[in-house]
Design goal:
Elements: H1 2-18, H2 41-54, H3 63-78, H4 83-97, H5 101-115, H6 118-129, H7 131-172
Helix pairs in contact: 1-3, 1-4, 2-5, 2-6, 3-4, 6-7
């Protein structure tokens, strides 16, 4: 129950800090990007817009609560008598790390900005904010899962057929397996 409360609190905190767009000064990583990676603020904002529209960072919001939960388990297993103190210490540590989510947001923006021009990102944002783009984002996980399932099923059928044909080819040459 407490882990769920921590996850909820962290999710709320993440939502609160994630609303404003980071500026170059706010989220400068310890290592400065190479000269060819100095994108304009508008280019990075365009990347951030596309990431938001496609939900490209949603699953990453689970990382901090998951790491906090794993840390709590490790420390609690070491000393179960300190469960409450460990929980509070982990919660304090996790809350202090919430602003670091901007590091990942910046990295994702850079990934998109390296691969798409600002104009291309603007076109993608226009597409994904329209009805067809919205439907695409909504249907993509379903279509992907169904496609992967179909590919796995096809692989299994292909494998069985490969064994049968190989056995038949060997049998035609007088070999038995």
């Amino acid at each position: 129950m407490r882990r769920a409360a921590l996850a909820f609190f962290l999710a709320a905190a993440c939502a609160a800090w994630a609303v404003p767009m980071p500026t170059m000064a706010q989220d400068a990583a310890p290592q400065q990007p190479a000269a060819e990676e100095n994108f304009t603020d508008s280019h990075l904002r365009a990347a951030a817009r596309v990431i938001e529209l496609v939900g490209g960072d949603v699953t990453f919001d689970e990382i901090l609560p998951r790491v906090a939960g794993q840390t709590q388990i490790v420390f609690t297993r070491t000393n179960p008598a300190l469960t409450r103190e460990i929980e509070e210490a982990v919660q304090t540590a996790a809350i202090s790390m919430v602003p670091r989510r901007l590091e990942l947001a910046r990295t994702l923006q850079m990934i998109w900005a390296r691969r798409f021009s600002e104009e291309e990102l603007d076109s993608l944002a226009e597409f994904f904010s329209g009805p067809l783009g919205t439907k695409y984002v909504e249907m993509f996980p379903i279509v992907s899962a169904l496609s992967l399932g179909a590919a796995k099923q096809w692989e299994q059928i292909l494998s069985a057929d490969m064994v049968t044909l190989t056995r038949d080819n060997l049998a035609a040459k007088g070999h038995t397996l």
